[in-house]
Amino acid sequence: MPDLIERFRVCVARATPAGLPIEAGTRDDYEALAPHHYRPGHPLTMTRVLVVRDHAATPTDRYLGRLPAARPVAVLTESPPALSCLLRDQALGGRYVGLRPKARSVLLNEEVRCISRVIVDPRYRGLGLAVRMVGHALSTAESRYTEALAVMGRVSPFFERAGMTAYQRPPLPVDERALAAMRFIGIEPHALAIPDALERKIDALSDTRHALLVRELTRWYRSAGGRGVVRKPGLQDILSAARRRLLARPIYYLRENTHAR
């Protein structure tokens, strides 16, 4: 099996050689690949789009004797930075803290660009395109800083591989207590990712442990949810919220572009 997978990678790599250029793209390039991204919604504003296009002919193109249409296979978008970010304040020693809102907005938009999306067509993953695109964005940046925020950073650390520095926020006390309660009754937090298996584990708990779990997670839900939480949540509402928050702590990435000072 490993040999078969490797041969497949080689075949795809030949169709997308390492020298395939990174070009200026458009919102249409982003829209073509947006369904492959794990996050819902779209960046409100894009200040720059980079794209890798594959010009190789498909079997249908060859059969019909037509020139292939270039199609986007990887895209990167940059956007203006959010006005507030605790991890940015940590990484930059509070550079933008204490400024009046208008002055902070002006300085942030002058100095910072955020890599808001990096999307690679699933058929072209594993070839290093994400690292190449981030590296290109950094080397051609015109802002003093480039930042990114990624929920999947622990799974796919391509921002670090491209030269950005990672900053992680430790769990908040309210989150840490909920995680500790789960571990105490014998359920590891990663079990949240598999709802059916988690439900079976919860059903197998003793009445005492079940009551402790429900009490602690309900306490967490009301403390961490803020406005908009369900007033009388069921256990499934709470577990769904825990899955989104406790398993999705984002990693902040930053790079100072010394060439752009």
Secondary-structure topology with pairs:
Elements: H1 2-15, E1 22-24, H2 27-33, E2 48-54, H3 59-64, E3 71-79, H4 86-91, H5 101-111, E4 112-120, H6 129-139, E5 145-150, H7 158-161, E6 165-168, H8 173-184, H9 195-203, H10 207-225, H11 235-246, E7 251-256
Parallel strand pairs: 4-5
Antiparallel strand pairs: 1-2, 2-3, 3-4, 5-7, 6-7
Helix pairs in contact: 8-10, 10-11
What descriptors fit this protein?
11 helices; 261 residues; 7-stranded mixed β-sheet; 2 domains; alpha+beta
Outline the structure in words.
With 261 residues, the protein is an alpha+beta fold. It has 2 domains: 2-168, 3-Layer(aba) Sandwich (Aminopeptidase); 173-246, no CATH class. The chain contains 11 helices and 7 strands. The protein has helices spanning 2-15, 27-33, 59-64, 86-91, 101-111, 129-139, 158-161, 173-184, 195-203, 207-225, 235-246; strands at 22-24, 48-54, 71-79, 112-120, 145-150, 165-168, 251-256. Strand 4 (112-120), helix 6 and strand 5 (145-150) form a beta-alpha-beta unit. The longest helix has 19 residues, at 207-225. The mean pLDDT is 85.
